[in-house]
Amino acid sequence: MRWREIRVTVGFVALHLLLALPAAAATALPAVAEIDGYLVRVKGLVDQLPAPPGDDGEIRGYLTGCVERASFLRDLAASPATEQSLLFVELKRFTAFRNTAKDGLGSLTPLGRSLLRAENGEAWPALGHYLMDDYVRGLVIRKALYERKYFEEDDPKQANLLEGWLNSRFDFCRTRDGAQAWYRRDGVSAFEVTVRTEPVVLVTRSTDVAVVLAGGLLYNFLPAVGQDAGDPFRAAVHDDLLSRQVKRVGLRAAAGAVFDGAGPDLLVGAGVQVRAISLWATYQPEETAWSLAVGVSDWRWLKRLRPILPYFGGL
Amino acid sequence: MATLVVVTHGVGNHPADFALAWEKILHAHHPDADFQVAGLWWEDLLEKVAEKFPIVEQEFADAVKSFGFGQLAQLLDSSTYDQVRDFFMDVLVYLAMGEMTDYLQTALALRLKQLLHDQGAAAGETVLIGHSLGAVALPHVVWRERNAIGYIPYRGLILLAPPLGMASPLPAVVKDPLAAMPGVHGMNRPQILTAFAREWAAGALHLLINRHDLICADVRFSAGGAAVDPIPVAQGFSNAELVLLERECGGSVSCFTQGAADPRQVAANHAVTLYLQRPEFDAAFAHLLGVAP
User: Fold this and answer.
1) Contact B252, B246 (CB under 8 A)
2) How confident is the model at residue B159 (pLDDT cuts 50, 70, 90)?
3) Could you report the predicted ipTM of this complex, rounded to two decimals?
4) Radius of gyration over every alpha carbon of chain B, rounded to an integer in angstroms
5) What residues in A contact B147, CB-CB < 8 Å?
6) Residues of chain A where predicted confidence (pLDDT) is lower than 50
7) Domains held by chain B: number
8) Which end of chain A is more exposed for a tag (fewer CB within 10 A), N or C?
9) What is the pTM of this model?
10) Could you list the residue range(s) of the whole structural domain that residue B27 is in?
11) Which residues in B lie closer than 8 A to residue A105 (C-beta atoms)?
């Protein structure tokens, strides 16, 4: 193995352990006797298969694979040097192996189906139930992050179907189970695509008003989220300065119409958004004129600002 | 300890105490059985997503019609058509935006776990019943749990009028309900159905389908002397899929016929009260409670 691969592997394992620590620290894990119990049961199931397995080759492969994994897990659990977090990670890997193997099984004989049900419904729960707390913890965190990203921003009701669809299509925007990246928290991506119509007010050269169709790529500053210490079904949200005050920033591009009193003119622009406010550099091709403009991605803000804006019939 | 029966509603306007109506029927049909009923309410979650994407209600109606649902509108009186349209739009909203599908599944899964915790019930002593869109969401939720812990811990699942057989005409845009199961990337419909059916113990999974229920079966209405299927999308399981379910989890599908194949009966043929009073439901429920039907 080359050094680069070794470094990557060690780094990955270290990251995995680091991420698993908080969950493992709070979660009970299977004892050696319980793993032994699973092994005895599954080996007993393997023994029920005919000597040349014939059509039961797939289920034999699945069950013997489970025995191998469980043996490794047992050795880990039996070793006094094993960190709890490592045992937890191995249990999760075992679970993932089983799920993938079960989903990949082809046609089974009635005996094969019966053995699969016995392993799955009678033997495995003794080990699998230890992952329940981690499952609930994952739900709590995932829900809280979704709430922040999609429902607790400054302009929650300005989204549309296209936005929802796009954010589900682009890999870097959508949530991915188990994915690790600098822009993800517990699988939820901080990136968000927006496509919205919104008002823009020119602030140099004129005070004309424009309406634009604007697309943007925003970065949400997501908070750190864990489980509430007193209630496992509630999230404990820890905001930092960026997630509390700035919330989201991004780059945007737009095209629309500016109303200058002589009918609508084409207007294009590029902008920077912070929270629900965008600062635009706009260009009117007809007049070959550049201007700065301010926009709000929430039409309700326009109503709030109207009393102090002369170009909206205010002062 | 009494068995906990968790019931989940489908589309439509459901109050938070919707389970009371279900509970009355269940206790009337099983007066000697020891169980308590709890509602897994998620109307507010659906509304929250609908408000987040308000354009869906206006624009999607036209999109739905463009799939050929105009023919349905001609067959049905307008109020029934509105119900059917609402149903399909909610299904599309649930399935078209993967992030919202995941959000709804996550929030519902969390509510289910909290419900069990609050009731002091073990999953192994809990029977889940879902109707309509709730019969789509519940399999998704339990599959999410299975992916996390490696097995489905619940005693049983009864799906009433499940639109799980529905096939999307544009799967790249809107997923099949089956394909929206979490973590099934790369699996086709038979593989998903096979894996799902195999997870349940014998007699633990039940799907009840009224052949005259437009939501979960390809009903043909009489129009102008010809039998017409007004919805160009397949709603029901194919014969091959029904055979697959029977092979992998014997006795899991019960098909029956109730109500006229009449456009005016669409809502009645889909009603949860119809399903809860069927002998097929009584038998499945009694089996899961461990009592004589």
Assistant:
1) yes
2) very high
3) 0.90
4) 18
5) 99, 177
6) 1-25, 310-315
7) 1
8) N
9) 0.88
10) 3-289
11) 195, 198
